[in-house]
Design brief:
CATH class: Mainly Beta
CATH topology: Lipocalin
Order of helices and strands: EEEEEEEEEEH
Largest sheet: 10 strands, antiparallel, barrel
Radius of gyration: 16 Å
Oligomer: single chain
Helix content: under 10%
Number of strands: 10
Number of helices: 1
Number of domains: 1
Length: 199
Amino acid sequence: MQGSRLVIGVAATLPWIVHAQDGPPPRDTDKPVEFASPELAALELFIGPWSVTESHFDPAGKTIATVKGTEEIAWILDHHAIRRVYATTGDKVFKAQGLLTWNGVEKKYHGVWFDNASTYGPSTCKGTWNGETRTMVFELESAGPGGTIRHRVVEKFVDAEKREAATYLVDGSKLIKRLEVEYRRTQPCPDRLRGLFTG
């Protein structure tokens, strides 16, 4: 994730296409999944195909570009991690893949992000989940020519079919919004998860 192209839809625009053989094997939806830790169960909300709309901002907060894309999120490694596969459409196609899991020692979600725009290697992220507000907050770090570049991504489920992410450049004590991403499910939210959005 690089500058305004930060996408983790952590992070901000955790859009992706996963081939069937790369995803988890089909499972009986009536049979509960056994997660390696209870915290991994929260990531089930992210699973599935999503359409993406990115809005990019200049330092003054003015919208400078709007881009469409897709994201596919799937379980890997026996429900120990999720993989995000992101791609935009248009003249300059942005592609990215990310992995996210739970770190039981630090009590945070840990992830890594690769894309086709950066030439400084992957970005790393640490996240915290608030189940009451259904919000994930990621702190991302990536290498840059002048040192470490930091971003904060606030990703919130608005309802069962939609989530939004805002990516901010961290400049000392200032947060400068660089990107907003709206995600909409392209398949309905599974019934087993829909109950989390009622009440």
